[in-house]
Write the structure tokens for this entry.
Amino acid sequence: MEVLTRKKSGLSDGQGKSSFKIKQLPFMAILCTVMLFIVYRTTKYQYHEVEIDRKWSLWGETKGYSAASERLKGLPQGIIQATSDLELRPLWSRSSSRSKVSDYSNRNLLAIPVGIKQKQNVNVMVRMFLRANFSIVLFHYDGNVNGWWDLEWSSKAIHLVAHNQTKWWFAKRFLHPDIVSIYDYIFLWDEDLGVEHFSPSRYLQIIKEEGLEISQPALDPNSTEIHHRITVRARNKKFHRRLYERRGSTKCSEASEGPPCTGFVEGMAPVFSRSAWYCAWHLIQNDLVHGWGMDMKLGYCAQGDRTKNVGIVDAVYVVHKGIQTLGGDGHDTIKGSDSRKATKKPSSSSIDLRSEIRRQSTWELEIFKKRWNQAVSEDRDWVDPFKGNKNFLRRRSRHNR
């Protein structure tokens, strides 16, 4: 009886184990499916990140980019040079120096749109930057190049000519990141800046020390035209990153998280690091040549936190003279809302042209805003890197009070 009971017990145990194993199968299948899905998503995410790094890393391995391009498969990899520069090359050289590898001494670039009417002011600017060993590019929007050859430095500069084109038009076409890849910083300045209180070498020292990827020199408070208070020089500072302003329509405080209170430079005298320019060049719209509205978005190219990597340098500053010649008669007329007061004949053709340019600029501003909003809505993978800071900044502001 006892043996029979044991046999029955053993049989029951076996059936129980078999039943338990059968019940485990669906669970194991689900678990395996979940694990496979996790592995798939992880692999896809890593691949996506690698692709982003490859596309955005201009200074990485050129071989990887070349190997991926079907259009270059006819060339041996070692002969491919994916970048260029704006350095002048001699037509001849001594035999002893022909085998030497080129040593770039000019690691920074100054590019200015120029007209012959502002020749004297540009001459002062260029002479100062040449002493700091800059490479110089002049964008001649009035077509007059011959009028510059009497300057001793003219043969050392690159001269590009296109009638009635803007700074951003020139920059989009001639300052491609692959072309300016050797330069640490790109100065993209207007021609109407007074540099009596400016030093290129001191400026470079400051932005390197402070890690400013995008910057501009502060404006003298006595400048003819000032659009944003954040650009005005602070006399007791070396540089500043934000504005504190309780007056006017724009209120700027510690809780302010973006332009024009922080993370902002204006379009008249921006300075870009190599990496920041790579991003900014892609932000420039090919057909929107006046660049209105772009200054509000440049912080997205700051290679990190725009409240830290974007700043205004106060120690060395410039005077904005507010001279506008593009589309006008070339005389020293005041820009902006005072342009009609500065001209005795409001019915002149130059004023009509300036009015048309302003209308075109305003229209381009609206188009740029629409394109940005549309791009944000269509790109589901894009996440605003600054949107998540709002709650933190609000809490910090309340704590400071």
